[in-house]
Amino acid sequence: MRISVVTPGELGASQTEAWREMRAGAEAPANPFMEPEFTLAVGRVRAQARVAVLWEGGEPAGFFPYERGPLGRGRAIGLGVSDCQGAVLRPGLGLDPRELLRACSLAAWEFDNLEAGQKLFEPDAADAFGSPVIDVAAGYAAYEERLRERSPKFLRTTLAKERRLGRQAGGVRFVLDERDPGVLRTLMSWKSAQYRRTGRRDRFSQRWISTLVRQLHESRAAGCRGTLSVLYAGDRPVAAHFGLRSRTVLSCWFPAYEPEFAKFSPGLILHLRMAEAAAGEGVALLDLGRGAAEYKDALKTGELRVHEGATLRPGPGAALYWLGREPVRRAHGFVRDHPWLAARARRTLNRVGRLRGTR
Question: pTM value?
Answer without folding.
Answer: 0.89
